[in-house]
Design a protein that fits this description.
By secondary structure, the chain is of the alpha/beta class. It has helices spanning 17-25, 40-52, 74-78, 99-116, 128-137, 154-163, 179-187, 217-227, 232-246, and strands at residues 2-7, 30-36, 56-60, 84-93, 120-125, 145-147, 166-169, 193-195. It has a single domain, classed as Metal-dependent hydrolases (TIM Barrel, Alpha-Beta Barrel), CATH 3.20.20.140. Helix 6 (154-163) links the parallel strand 6 (145-147) and strand 7.
Length: 251
């Protein structure tokens, strides 16, 4: 069985998210998923979904592209729910030129995660260096950190390994152009990587330009098994163990 460590079942992209929820609930090859919040509204929705669907866990956070009119202190109450396993996704995105505002929200959310003893899920769109600078100069996660859908960067990888943080591989590793990501996969220690679909985004190679599903996690695991020269079952077990070690509230 596999864990999809990062997906968005309540995305606006999906016309009928109950259909995709049922698909996960009925899939014997998926043990659980983490439904990731992008703002207060989607974080609340994620918690409600997790209450009635045992395979679903939640993270709550304010994505750097959606920081307008968001009360970051609301995360204290949201994170009290037992099925909330992390603060995220949080970070930087170069899609908007509001660096100082993004920085303020990132720093505050890491502080909240540290107070609540929760790990953080980092979004870093061409911003790995900025994230590391924040960790070094302002505040660093104390209870775990994963760079989701890690954009290959050898300097940041070295920092992540030294800190005992994690990286997450998504569908892009299945692409023919993913040579740098494949090299990263060869270098990352077995105890510091997990897998995700980022569903409904980042479709995998056989289904480019289609709605991505959590069931496609098998293609990512299969690619990693090839790259790391291990069996599918080994990678499946390694990533499940790593995910539960990082997100300690997961059963």
């Amino acid at each position: 069985m596999a864990i999809d460590s990062h997906m968005h079942i309540n995305s606006v992209v999906l016309d009928n998210n109950q259909l995709y929820i049922d698909d996960i609930n009925k899939n014997p090859n998926i043990e659980s998923v983490i439904n990731v919040g992008l703002n207060i509204k989607t974080s609340l929705e994620s918690i409600e979904i997790s209450k009635t669907n045992p395979k679903f866990y939640s993270s709550v956070g304010i994505h750097p592209l959606y920081i307008e009119n968001q009360d970051v202190n609301t995360l204290y109450d949201l994170a009290n729910n037992i099925k909330v396993v992390a603060i995220g996704e949080i970070g930087f995105d170069n899609g908007k030129n509001n660096f100082e505002d993004q920085k303020k929200y990132l720093v505050r959310q890491i502080e909240i995660a540290n107070e609540l003893k929760l790990p953080v899920i980092i979004h870093s769109n061409n911003s790995n260096e900025k994230i590391v600078d924040i960790f070094r100069a302002h505040v660093k996660p104390k209870y775990g950190c994963v760079f989701h859908c890690f954009q290959p960067d050898f300097d940041t990888l070295k920092y992540i390994i030294n800190e005992g943080f994690y990286i997450s591989f998504a569908g892009k590793i299945t692409y023919k152009t993913a040579k740098k990501s494949i090299e990263i996969a060869r270098l990352i220690p077995d105890d510091l990587f997990i897998v995700e679909t980022d569903s409904p985004y980042i479709s995998i190679e056989p289904f480019r330009n289609e709605i991505n599903k959590s069931s496609n996690i098998k293609y990512i695991i299969n690619k990693l098994s090839e790259v790391k020269e291990k069996s599918y079952e080994e990678i499946e077990n390694i990533t499940m163990e790593n995910t539960k070690r990082l997100f300690k509230r997961m059963k």
